[in-house]
Write a structure and sequence with these properties.
By secondary structure, this protein is of the alpha+beta class. Helices cover 26% and strands 31% of the residues. The chain has two domains: 120 residues, Aminotransferase class 4, branched-chain amino acid transferase, N-terminal domain (D-amino Acid Aminotransferase, Chain A, domain 1), CATH 3.30.470.10; 152 residues, D-amino Acid Aminotransferase, subunit A, domain 2 (D-amino Acid Aminotransferase, Chain A, domain 2).
Length: 304
């Protein structure tokens, strides 16, 4: 049962969440012609009368870019202003997640992006740990990550997530927590909704953008943070067999944050995860605004 925040932004105004409804004939519902974002917010541990949002500007920029794939001109500044007002109106007192969504709102039946109305809404819900912070089990999915030549993978296009849904359910129904998808070249791409990192001989390794991965904001944050901590980061193709012999493996994403992997298929990993733990502790300190070196990553919204 989800605890949704009481107010949503819908059709250019703020309304009660229960009144933000779309028609069953909505174009995006039938064709997956939508794009979404997702970001976390927390009450400031030092001042509960203000909210902290992690990298709000980057999230708004990425969603604005995703809108362009749908032939929709929606500025990052507009998205940021709506999200800021949304947070103030809801004044959440627990950790929460914000879901902004752009979609073709017309009631037509032809699959197209031209001559069709678009709209933008925002809602939120309380959210703690998305995956177990102690570690998750993963299987290699029988489904493959799409290719950028057939789908704009630089955006979070809603229709693309059928593959993620198939992979996630396949994993859970076969006794695992998560799935890892390979790309069409047989290299490691990402999980159902998270980027993936591994540690080998002290180096942090992750598939590059040429491996059909999402341009993850948490991914970008981890790479920057790791380099600042003196950890060598390598972005390159990753073989499945490398994952099995890695020293540490973890997933990253807005919902997942940094989630260690305890097992992939029948290969188990040590619970001693020095690099993963160091990065997770550092990222937590940043999101809670306890590390002044990264203040520009944290957007503060006063509630008074």
């Amino acid at each position: 049962m989800h605890n949704f925040l009481p107010t949503a932004y819908f059709q250019n105004k703020f309304v009660p969440f229960g009144e933000a409804n779309i028609s069953i004939a909505t174009h995006a519902l039938h064709y997956g012609t939508g794009a979404f974002g997702g970001l976390r917010g927390i009450p400031d541990p030092q001042n509960p009368r203000q909210i902290l949002l992690f990298r709000l500007d980057r999230h708004c920029q990425r969603l604005s870019q995703s809108a362009r794939f749908l032939h929709f001109d929606l500025s990052a500044d507009k998205i940021q202003q709506v999200i800021t007002d949304f947070v103030k109106k809801n004044s959440p007192d627990k950790s929460f997640y914000i879901r902004p969504f752009i979609y073709t709102s017309d009631l037509g039946i032809a699959p197209r992006l031209h001559n069709v109305e678009k709209d933008f809404f925002v809602y939120g819900l309380e959210l703690g740990d998305y995956l177990s912070p102690d570690g998750v089990s993963c299987r290699i999915s029988s489904w493959y990550r799409q290719e950028d030549r057939s789908l704009p993978l630089r955006g979070k296009i809603s229709g693309a997530y059928i593959t993620s849904s198939l992979a996630k359910t396949e994993a859970v129904e076969s006794g695992f927590d998560e799935s890892i998808l390979m790309n069409s070249q047989g290299k490691v791409s990402e999980a159902s909704g998270m980027n993936i990192f591994m540690v080998r001989r002290g180096k942090l390794i992750t598939p590059g953008f040429d491996q059909d991965v999402l341009e993850g904001i948490t991914r970008d944050s981890i790479i920057t943070l790791a380099r600042d901590l003196g950890i060598e980061v390598v972005e390159r193709p990753v073989d499945k067999s490398e994952l099995f012999i890695a020293d540490e493996v973890f997933l990253s994403g807005t919902a997942a944050r940094i989630t260690p992997i305890s097992r992939i298929e029948n290969y188990k990993y040590s619970t001693h995860r020095p690099v993963t733990d160091q990065l997770r502790e550092a990222l937590t300190a940043i999101t809670e605004n306890r590390d002044r070196r990264y203040q520009d990553w944290v957007f503060t919204i006063p509630l008074d």
